[in-house]
Amino acid sequence: GNLTKLTYLGLSVNELSGPIPPELSSLTNLIVLDLFGNKLSGPIPPGLSNLTKLTYIRFGSNRFSGPIPPELGSLTKLTTLSLGGNALSGPIPPELGSLTDLTGLGLNNNALSGPIPPELCNLTKLTWLGLFSNNLSGPIPPELGRLTNLTDLYLYSNRLFGSIPPQLGSLTNLTKLDLSFNRLSGSIPPQLGSLTNLVDFRLFYNILSSSIPPQLGNLTKLTLLSLGSKSVDDYNIEFEQALVNLRAEITDEAVKIERYRSGLQADVREMCRTSPTGQRWGTLNELAEYATLMWPVVETRLAKRKTSQPAKSVAGKRKATGGGSGRSQGQIVGSSY
C-alpha cells in the first residue's frame, strides 16, 4: 500500500491465497493489475474503483466470489477486464456499459445469472466478448448488432432463450460465433449469411427449427460448422457446394437429409459418398473434385431416366461416424479453441 508510484503490478500464476488486501486500493497510479492464476478468494473490493488510471485488470482463474462490483464501471480507461474462471455470482452490472474503451471483456466460467444487460452494447470497441459458461438467461439483446468490431462472440453454455437476433448479421468482422448449449428457438436468420469472415460457427444443442437458409452458403471461410443434435430438412445443395473447405466428417446426430432437389440424389450420393477404394471422403473439396469427374456419367444416367420414368425423390440419412464428448459432440470435426 506504500508503493504509491507503482504503475504495473503483475503477480500472475503463483500460489497466492486469501482476499485482495484493501490497501491495494491506495495504489492510485496503477495502470496494469494482473492477479491471474492464483488462489485468491473473497469478494472483488469495490475500492478498486479508486484506481482510475487502470487500463488492464486480469483476475481470471482464481476463487473470487460474490457479485461483480458495479463500481468497476467508473474505471473508464479500462481496455481489458478479465474476470473469468472464478465463482462470481449475481447479475452482470449494467454499469459496465460505461467502460467504452474496452476491447476485451471476459466474464466466462462463473455463476452469473440474469439477462445480458443491453448496456453492454455501448462497448463498441469490443473485439472479444466472452460470457460463456454461466447461468445467464433471457433473450440475446438485438443491440449486440452494434458491436461491429467484434471478432469473437462466445455466449455458449447458458440458459438463453428466444430467437437469434437477425441484427447479429451486422457483425461482419466476426471470425468465431458460439451460441451452443442454450435454449434458442425459431429459425436460423438468413442475415447470418453476411458473416463472411466466420471460420468457426456453433449452434448445436438448441431447439432451432430445421431448415438451413441458403444464405449460409456465403460463409466460404468456415472450417468448423456445428448445427448438431437436430434434424435438418431442405438441406440446400447451394449451401453444400459453397462450403467446399468445410471439414466434412459429420458426427453423431448431426444431419438428416430429408429432401434433395432432384432424382439425381441417389446417383450422386452413391458415387460421392465414398472414394473408389471404399474410403470416406475427408473433405468436401475431395468430394466435389470427384463429383466433377463423374459428371458425364451422371448426365448419361439422367438421359436414361428421362426416357424411362420420372425420377423419385429419395430420403437419405448420413450415419454418425464420429464420437467425442462434451462440447465436441454433434459437430463437424474441427479444432476447438
Automatic annotation (TrEMBL):
Q: What is this protein called?
A: Uncharacterized protein
Give the record's keywords alphabetically: Cell membrane, Glycoprotein, Leucine-rich repeat, Membrane, Repeat
Q: Name one Pfam family in it.
A: LRR_1
Q: Which organism is it from?
A: Klebsormidium nitens
Give residue spans, biased composition: Polar residues: 328-337
Instruction: Indicate where this protein resides in the cell.
Output: Cell membrane
Quote the cellular component terms of the Gene Ontology held in the record: plasma membrane
For region Disordered, the annotated ranges are 306-337
